Amino acid sequence: MAMIETTDTAEAPWRALAAQVADGRGPWRLPDESLSRPEQLVALAARSQLSDDDAAALRALGESLSEPEWDAVRSLASDGYLTSLVYAQVAAAGLLPSLPPAVHAAFSDSYRASLLANLRIRTAMERLLDQLAAADIAAVPLKGVALAERVYGNIAWRYTRDIDLLVRQQDVRRVGALLRAGGYIAEGKHDHAHAFGAITGAETKYERADAPMIELHWGLSKRPSYRQGLAVKDVWARTIPATWRGRAIRLLAPNDELRFLAVHCTADHRASQLNWLVDIAEIIRKAPVGWRWDDFVAETIAAGQATPLGLALAQCRAALGLAVPDDTLTELLRAALAPRERAAWRSCWAEYLSRRWIIAHLREIPSSSDRARFTIGTLGRLTLRTVYKRALTYP
Q: CA of 131: how far to CAs of 19, 138, 175, 181, 326, in Å?
């Protein structure tokens, strides 16, 4: 395997399409030039398994880096929340003697911190899943430590800061009651699915001073324009049984998980954060036997999610060297130029409480009672904003 799995040029047709699809929004402009040497090293090391050729290429590159370049590697890994993974693969390639002492210390400290934090989160998640199982409440772990162990094979290698669970909307109150009994407090003290913030985000957060944050999701996107393509009723029907640390759980089907992660990265958080892209790349590299690009692409286009997936895969290829076929990227990005896709992408960048933001939410809220709550909450917030602005300008 070559140092980077693909040999792209700035003139590649999918690159021009990606720039057109991104529409100048956020960090989705692909690099025009080849990766720098520190970027190449991060791209090689940011994977859970190294082939012999990968390890040899990583070793040769690492042994040639200067001290400033190693510091750039550390900075890139830190900014991308990949310090633990990069450090582990740098060590596996026999490069620790090549690291400047300060860089080595920073990597080592970050690895230990990640391991301890994730062990703490895993313990809290085990307890929560046991509680939910005893109450006969179904939950699907999203991202986090379950993904770290399942996909990366090492709990320390994936940065995690909280517990994300997908639950059914009708179970939100029951889960909230369990969490309150354990000392958790809902963000904004709203622990039901019908509060304004919960309606707009399809999630609610619970905090306790001595425990990791817990985020309950009953939808798979904060952006209403992408919720229909990740319809939770259909997603639940496709979940697959699995076992995690001796517990029976359910997981998103592989295609649903990839689309969820792409939407989470591009639309929900509007950031090409490297660790989220690595999640996508790792899942694709470990795709089950029989998994087909053409079926996956057709499903994604039909779901109206060609834009988030196309942009995420383009970044995975440009920044991480993921071997995504040219025709796959081209098909997705061309589909992303359809009017429906354009409207959905621009909608997710709408300003909070703007006309476009309000209309986008009203179109996707299925319950008339929730639409009424949303409307009342919106009017109240707009009124407060007007009063606040007038108070600031009052002579």
A: 47, 11, 9, 11, 47
Q: Which tokens belong to 297?
A: 């692409």
Percent of the chain residues past pLDDT 90, beyond the cut: 83
What are 64's two structure tokens? 């040639």
Look at the block and give the residue holding tokens 């081209």.
330
List helix spans (H) across the chain. 13-22, 37-45, 52-64, 67-79, 83-92, 101-134, 144-147, 172-181, 196-201, 224-227, 232-238, 254-263, 274-285, 293-302, 306-320, 326-335, 339-347, 355-364, 368-393
CB neighbours (10 Å) of residue 16? Answer: 13
Q: What pLDDT is stored for residue 394 in this prediction?
A: 63
pTM, two decimals, is 0.93
pLDDT per position as a tens digit, 213-266 = 999 999 999 999 999 899 999 999 999 999 999 999 999 999 999 999 999 999
Strand partners, 215: 164, 205
In degrees, to the nearest 5, what angle opens at C-alpha 202 toward C-alphas 197 and 203?
Answer: 75
- What gap in Å lies between CA 139 and CA 178, rounded to an integer? 14
